[in-house]
Amino acid sequence: MELFQEHIPLSRYTSYRIGGPARYFFDAATEEQVRYAIGETRKRKLALFVLGGGTNLLVSDRGFPGLVLKPNLKIMDVQGEEVQVGAGVEMAALLEFAISKSLSGLEWAGGLPGTVGGAIRGNAGAFGGEIKDVVKRVASLDSVSGKVLVRPGSQCNFSYRSSIFKEHNPPEIILWADLELKKSSAKDIRTAVYEKVNYRKERHPLEYPNVGSIFKNVDWNTVPQAHHHTLKNVVKTDPFPVVPTAYLISEAGLKGVSFGGAMVSPKHPNFIVNALNASAGDVLALVELVKTEVKNKFQIELEEEVMMVGDFKDR
């Protein structure tokens, strides 16, 4: 196990700056290294967690007892209007690459944190767009058989903030994807991307460590009839009619509420920020409070968008 690091604090690798140690940690730069890690995991019967950009995770204060694998594949290549991109490429780097090649289709992702692999796994979306709209095919490594699977986008089971890669357990490790973009004006693409970047800077509490939206927006079709009259004017399409969860949290009077070092952001209440060296337990206490208060006021069950990693026994 000489290539694995031991007892690495996962707070170093998460945008929350929260998380206990990984028993083993491996940053894989190539497909061969991913295969090696998977082989060792099977041989030693280790639990496996696949880490992308760490931007949508709440890692337990106890850490993770197995192997945390970071598939840091950084390829970016273009053939005409098709871009092949490695799972470890940051979304910001992919956007700059697309601008440099005058390729449109990802403007909605301006300011989106994290990696391409993470975006595909969770079918990331914003401003009416989703990654599934441009995915032509995805290559992944089956952590059980060790085989590489190449699927067309239509077979990735993309849905709201989910995909076949999120549903599968044991996990498949995304290696790379082919994205279908369209030629356009580099100037127009850049303008559209930076509109989204600036919107996020203005509306999101980026001054604190955070993981973006904690909860999914609420499908309008699931809202109880009794609340249709009060909520119909806040419905937006993203990518289907939803009630913004930030509005529900605000109406429940939770802006600025804190527990330990965690706080419901007054700027955007669907963000629970690490305001003062918060623990995972602090964040989780606020998650549970928000769910309870929104359910009491609106009879709506909120569903977390953030992924919980590690041992949350006390939940």
Please tag this protein with its features:
alpha+beta, Uridine Diphospho-n-acetylenolpyruvylglucosamine Reductase, domain 3, Uridine Diphospho-n-acetylenolpyruvylglucosamine Reductase, domain 1, 3 domains, four-stranded mixed sheet, 8 helices
Could you explain how this protein is built, in words?
The relative contact order is 0.14. The model has no long low-confidence stretch (mean pLDDT 95). Strand 19 (262-264) and strand 20 (272-274) form a beta hairpin. The protein has eight helices and 21 strands. The chain is an alpha+beta fold and 315 residues long. It has three domains: 5-71, Uridine Diphospho-n-acetylenolpyruvylglucosamine Reductase, domain 2; 76-197, Uridine Diphospho-n-acetylenolpyruvylglucosamine Reductase, domain 3, CATH 3.30.465.10; 205-309, UDP-N-acetylenolpyruvoylglucosamine reductase, C-terminal domain (Uridine Diphospho-n-acetylenolpyruvylglucosamine Reductase, domain 1, Alpha-Beta Complex). The strands form seven sheets. A five-stranded antiparallel β-sheet has the order 6-7-13-11-12. A four-stranded mixed β-sheet has the order 1-2-5-3, with helices on one face. Helix content is 26%, strand content 27%.
Map the helices and strands.
Blueprint: E1 5-9, E2 21-28, H1 31-44, E3 48-50, E4 57-59, E5 64-71, E6 76-79, E7 82-86, H2 91-100, E8 103-104, H3 116-121, E9 125-126, E10 129-130, E11 135-142, E12 148-152, H4 164-167, E13 172-180, E14 182-183, H5 186-203, E15 218-219, H6 228-231, E16 236-237, E17 241-243, H7 245-251, E18 258-259, E19 262-264, E20 272-274, H8 280-298, E21 307-309
Parallel strand pairs: 2-5, 3-5, 4-21
Antiparallel strand pairs: 1-2, 6-7, 7-13, 8-14, 9-10, 11-12, 11-13, 15-17, 16-17, 18-19, 19-20
